[in-house]
Structure prediction request, 784 residues.
Amino acid sequence: MNRSLVRTALTVAAAALLAVFAAACGSSDDAPKGAKTMSFELTDAGCVPNTAKAPAGPITFNVENAGTSKVSEFEVLDGDTILGEKENLSDGLSGSFSLTLEQGEYTLYCPGGDDEKGTLTVSGELKSANSPRVEEAIAQYRDYLEQNTAELVTATAPFVAAVEAGDIEKAKGLYAPARIPYERIEPVAESFGDLDPRIDARENDVPAKEWSGFHVIEKALWDEDTAAGMAPVAKQLLADIEELARKVKTVELQAVQIANGANELLGEVSASKITGEEERYSHIDLVDFEANVEGAEAAFEAVEPLLSDKDPKLAKEIEAHFEDVYAALKPYRRGDGFVSYTELTQADTRKLAQEIDALAELLSEVPAQIVSE
Amino acid sequence: MTAITRRRLLTSAGAGAAGIGLGGATGFLVGQETAEAKTDGTGSVPFYGEHQAGIDTPAQDRLHFAAFDLVTENRTELRELLREWSRAAAEMTTGDMIGDANSVELAPPEDTGETVGLLPSRLTITIGFGPSLFERKGLGLQSKRPAALREIPPLPADELNAGESGGDICVQACSDDPQVAFHAVRNQARIGRGTVVMRWSQLGFGRTASTSRSQDTPRNLMGFKDGTANIRAEDTEAMQRFVWVGNEGPAWMRGGSYLVTRRIRMLLEVWDRSALEDQEATIGRDKYEGAPLGGSKESDPLDLDAERGGEPAIPVDAHVRLASASANGGERILRRGYSFTDGVDESLGELEAGLFFICFQRHPERQFVAIQRRLGSSDALNEYIKHVGSAVFAVPPGARSGGYVGETLLA
Prediction:
């Protein structure tokens, strides 16, 4: 994972959620009709007011920095999950975002303020706006998520056991199979606070003291040819992955968010897999690349019926481009996996990058097409 | 009084206007009015017309040039691409955003947005087809390739890099605003995703030619005026004779032209330590006035027979002699190039910079190729330059309003 992408992914995932909620009320841009407007100020104290009440339904949050240099951000959270936020509001700036909220207690968070956290209490009934077809798309993708998190747990356990036993060769052989299911569903992991950095951060994504997860072990195994000291890291990795599997069961999904997830996966490929930055020591970047593409394809297939109704031509073009990407990967297969990233020439990576760009450009049109379902 | 563009405000303040006080050929203010005659006064050059713009348009200050390769052999897809490119070009050249879907929250905006609030700044977008396009079997265009369109043959002194040469289709974007020129190619590349991929591209700063009598002669990175003897747009007879394709080509090329690009690296570190007289002897003009050696004003015609101290005033291997119409059977080309720099050459630690040479003509073989063959064999300038990239494109005639560039070929 890319550290800067965590923030973006969170914001994108949150934005996707809020946008879909906005759409459920009949509008795809600007505030939903009939949205309740609530105004907040950022001060040295934090969010002002820091307790609020609202009826269930669409809410537009108008946020203004009233003259503080300590606080520049306003977030609405459900537990640990950021639903919506506005950042970079320095003195004098204001911004807004919309959410549709169900009954419950939400946290208002203005980091840096004397009293950073507040409460938003939402009461009343919220009508669900999903059609049966959308429900089916969501169910299909949820199945995929659960299958892959189950596979992730099943694949990580023996990897962790081998690391704990100090069996370097065995651990190396079990690394890729554990990476694949993770890379297929990565955007969902990113929506759960810091789980993704804990599992997938690369060395310079986080301060050295905080570095944990797959790549710590990757570096030890491949760069230092050792498993010494890795047992606690491996144990923590398995615990984090089991937590991910539990959280995925309860995640709220919306059709637009699923479609956005496909786009994020291809963004992952462009940002770090095609450049060999993801798997710096094992060089299995093409394995991750394929997993990201498979994940994007699964997300796309879940929402494809919704798209085919509006734009069957686009759906067919996207299908064809997925095939083009797999065909472009074919020459690099070796055994069950792929050649090492280090074997790729500039001509190779260029061709792959251009195929991904062509596919991603088309996929980026999907969320807006399916939003009014 | 026509609208003042930002560029003219800068130059009218006297900041570095090339040629002022150094014997420039025409009055500066008079020149500006003539340049404006080629736009509708708002800095917008019409995209539609008999000829594509960006050829006889007075040369703008900035360039973004890109060569693309097709990744499809489907003629319908090519036609669709050219339609979309033409539509986008018509919008960009009037300063409009591309498309209508720029405020849909859930969709990426159609236009990338970096020119919002900027003037079109005389943007022109010119599209051409390379010989390799006609070889793509699936397109079925082999029989339509003009006989004049052939890959530039290997020429003396070439050191061409294949990755920076050739291309199925080119887009030349010129503008006085670098952001406007950049935006044009970036958006055409985005529109083209799935149909074309970028092969190579070049940014140019600073025009190295005047294509209108209204323009002063700029200097290239060697410090010499470049383009003194260029064909000017106002010389309609010369444009007809040397630039616009007539009846000799296939009907679909009538009113078009052939574009040759050459990426010419200048060995500036070596040039900069040459004595002034060597520099002047190499080029064949004096450095500051731009007069031909043996003459006194920039506008003096070349006198190839003039002598100085018993020797030809313009040396036999001087660049301007070997490139002159007289030395080349009367042939001339319309030059429209730009200076470039691309950072530091990694293998040498030296500036990677030079001239991205662009020329337009009716018969590449008779014109550019013949001239360059002569220059490549004998030009004194060869000690200081290397041709590292090369391409040739057939530039079709202009599109009619509602039509598209290439319609004459593909309709």
Notes: Chain A has two domains: 26-123, 131-370. The longest strand of chain A covers residues 57-65. Chain A has eleven helices and eleven strands. The longest helix of chain A spans residues 132-164.
